[in-house]
Amino acid sequence: MRKIIPLIALLCAGGYFFWAKSQTDSPQPITEKAVSPPSKKIVPTETKSTGDIVEVSSVDEQEVDSDSNLMWAESDIARQVLYESGRLPVDLNGETYLEIDVEALKNLSIGDYVDIEMPGVEGDYDALVDKVKEHASGNKTVQMNLPGFGSVYFVSFTFGKDTVYGNLTLPSGSYSLEAQGNYAWVASKADLTKNHVEDDLNFKLPEAK
Q1: pTM, to two decimals
Q2: Helix (H, G, I), strand (E, B) or coil at 85
Q3: Which of 102, 130, 97, 120 has the alpha carbon at shortest distance from 173?
Q4: d(Cα 164, Cα 102) in Å, to the nearest integer?
Q5: pLDDT tens per residue, range 158-180
Q6: What domains can you pick out in the chain, each with its CATH number?
Q7: Which UniProt keywords apply (predicted)?
Q8: CA–CA dist 12, 31 (Å, integer)
Q9: Is 192 helix (H, G, I), strand (E, B) or coil?
Q10: Are 108 and 132 in contact (CB under 8 A)?
């Protein structure tokens, strides 16, 4: 009986050992850890570079560039200044008031081209400077022809100390220009002549006694 008890104890111990080993070898349930979804990453849209640097001018710079070659522009200031001067011709009719770049016109040289696109003047013509004359009085005349239109058409500007007189004989008509400083008026000679005729018609002779 004493021999049987140790044998039973040994068997129990062996059984426990094999049971414990089987528990260790068997796969344990895996507790899955909740994985938070990856945060959304905003990637800027890729732009293809051409390698060229493009300079973009501001609106103001573009406006300045577009006007940089203009020698005249319509101006309400010119109208006001010339009216206040009291030196406008009384027979002026159908005129347009301008601000002109006197220095640019005065410094033209033979061979220079001028775009005759002037407010108050019908048509757009390319004029070529063909004569520049310095007068003994100190005045200066710059004369231009219109290539392709014949010698009958021309443009001339005579510069005094503070005045400019312009004569534009164009396919669209003839025009006169007068300036005081940089402020000028330009009008069709047909309109000026019309005003002269109207004044003549209104003129009354004194009655004979």
Answers
A1: 0.62
A2: helix
A3: 120
A4: 8
A5: 999 999 999 999 999 999 999 99
A6: 71-201 (2.40.128)
A7: Signal
A8: 33
A9: helix
A10: yes
